[in-house]
Automatic annotation (TrEMBL):
Coiled-coil ranges (or none): none
Organism: Croceitalea vernalis
Keywords carried by this UniProt record: Glycosyltransferase, Transferase
Similarity remark: Belongs to the PNP/MTAP phosphorylase family.
Protein name, per record: Purine nucleoside phosphorylase
Enzyme Commission (EC) number: 2.4.2.1
Residue intervals of the Nucleoside phosphorylase domain: 23-268
Amino acid sequence: MTKKQLNESVEYLKNKGFDSPEIGIVLGTGLGQLVDEIEEPIEAHYHHIPNFPLATVEFHTGKLLFGFIENKKVVVMQGRFHLYEGYDLLDVTYPIRVMHELGIQKLFISNAAGAVNLNFKKGDIMLLEDHINLQGGSPLAFKNVAEFGDRFVDMSEPYDFEMREKITAIAAQENISLQKGVYASVVGPQLETKAEYRMLKILGADAVGMSTVPEVIVANHLRLPIVAISVLTDECDPDYLLPVNIQEIIEIAGKTEPKMIKIFKELVKVL
Ligand code: HPA
């Protein structure tokens, strides 16, 4: 990754009308409905944006949208890049750097995750308070990282405290029950074994998924305040583990998404 590449991506988007968005939003698997809330949308397909990671077949729907939510300028990533699709950590986090160069000052991230904490149920949403990186690498482990910021990035509070407080208040006001906890990121794409779910619990994870942490690390590198919400799509009980049903996971993500949309929209309003 070079500054020149980043500038080319950003120039393309600016020319398309992506004019100084204030807030960036990353939509996770099965979580695309927020796109319908964008007013005056402008679209840029990932495979048209210079230097964006090359799309896999299933990724042809991936796009960046610019527009307005609650009268604020937003840029929304519909579909993200995952390690399990064969991308590397620089690919996965490239769009975060592009959105930052476009001017965003806040970032919201969503994902679908499994509930490791068995007090949490499928259909719940969880505000990330912290995370455990189990992806075996860092998006900051590259030679010219110093051109982009510090190498030894502080992670004592990766998720912005003020925005978390605002989300807590919004959930209470909207009568949305909100879990809070620690998200562990794995590579996937295979789901976890019973022994792995036991391990994750012992490690202190409340939820597990295959994304988000690389983007959060890069946002911290950029000193970009972020918040993240997991939509819990399945219960990962090692003593009673049902075979995974991807169809059901996507269905539950879709059914639960309105709660997340409500919270993100209210948060945009009060920022
Ligand atoms: N693991 C288990 N369950 C899940 C995941 C995962 O990575 N993502 C969504 N549900």
